[in-house]
């Protein structure tokens, strides 16, 4: 089965993990993975994508707040939403959780009543943010592509007009010289046609490809394949 969301829970109490799994697995879109210690969970998170983390506050060794700080310092994990699990919602604990940047908290005694509702809300907000970010990214790329097309138009128009004139002039007045440079003039003509096609039809119908370090560039080759 293909799940839509992966949820990772970290709690030193295995009975709590079993209760979480039973509750969360009621929703077929959720894939649940539980860990009874943070170190094992961290290793898993570094190698696997997660959409949400449920993190117990009171644990031996590192407490939940310390674990949360480690997650937020990791560039690959810092954007994953976190819900703290707590035995009591005292003011100090709740304030600390939100000051650190957690998305929410759930009192363990209220798993059945509140947990799924809060998970669904946070994942819906995450989806909305990602869609907005993609929209903004698309808008920037489109604006850039439009700017490139605009600034290329004039020199391309000049090349399109001048190259045939140059070929006619060379072939009639300097036929011997023309034969030696004909292939280069044809190459310029072909390159101009390709650039004109790119500017006129493709830069405004773009797709992207990853370049380096999460930087995307226009995938011109993919555009060619789509239009064939």
Kindly state the number of beta strands.
7
Q: How much of the residues is beta strand, in percent?
A: 15-25%
Global structural class: alpha/beta
Order of SSEs? EHEHEHEHEHHEEH
CATH superfamily of the largest domain: Response regulator
* Unreliably modeled segments: none
Q: Which word captures the global form?
A: rod-shaped
Number of domains: 2
Explain what the structure shows.
- The protein has 228 residues and is of the alpha/beta class.
- It contains 7 helices and 7 strands, in the order βαβαβαβαβααββα.
- The strands form 2 sheets. The chain has a 5-stranded parallel β-sheet, sandwiched between helices.
List key phrases describing it.
five-stranded parallel sheet; 7 strands; 2 domains; rod-shaped; 61% helix; 228 residues; two-stranded antiparallel sheet; Rossmann fold
Give the helices and strands, then pairings.
Elements: E1 5-10, H1 14-24, E2 30-35, H2 38-47, E3 52-56, H3 64-73, E4 82-86, H4 91-100, E5 104-107, H5 111-173, H6 175-202, E6 208-212, E7 215-218, H7 220-227
Parallel strand pairs: 1-2, 1-3, 3-4, 4-5
Antiparallel strand pairs: 6-7
In short:
The chain is α/β, with parallel strands linked by helices and 228 residues long.
């Amino acid at each position: 089965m293909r799940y839509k969301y992966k949820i990772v829970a970290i709690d030193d109490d295995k009975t709590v993990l079993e209760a979480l799994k039973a509750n969360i697995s009621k929703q077929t879109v959720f894939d649940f993975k539980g860990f009874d210690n943070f170190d094992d969970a961290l290793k898993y998170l570094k190698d696997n994508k997660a959409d949400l983390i449920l993190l117990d506050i009171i644990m031996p060794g590192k407490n939940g707040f310390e674990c949360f700080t480690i997650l937020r310092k990791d560039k690959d994990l810092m954007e994953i939403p976190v819900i703290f699990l707590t035995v009591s919602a005292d003011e100090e604990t709740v304030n600390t959780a939100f000051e650190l940047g957690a998305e929410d908290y759930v009192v363990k005694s209220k798993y059945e009543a509140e947990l799924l509702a809060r998970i669904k809300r946070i994942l819906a907000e995450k989806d909305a943010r990602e869609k907005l970010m993609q929209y903004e990214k698309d808008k920037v790329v489109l604006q850039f592509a439009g700017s490139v097309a605009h600034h290329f138009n004039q020199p391309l128009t000049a090349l399109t007009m001048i190259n045939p004139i140059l070929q006619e002039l060379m072939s009639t007045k300097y036929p011997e010289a023309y034969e030696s440079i004909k292939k280069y003039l044809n190459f310029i003509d072909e390159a101009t046609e390709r650039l004109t096609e790119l500017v006129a039809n493709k830069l405004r119908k773009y797709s992207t490809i990853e370049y380096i370090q999460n930087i995307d560039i226009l995938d011109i080759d993919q555009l060619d394949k789509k239009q064939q």
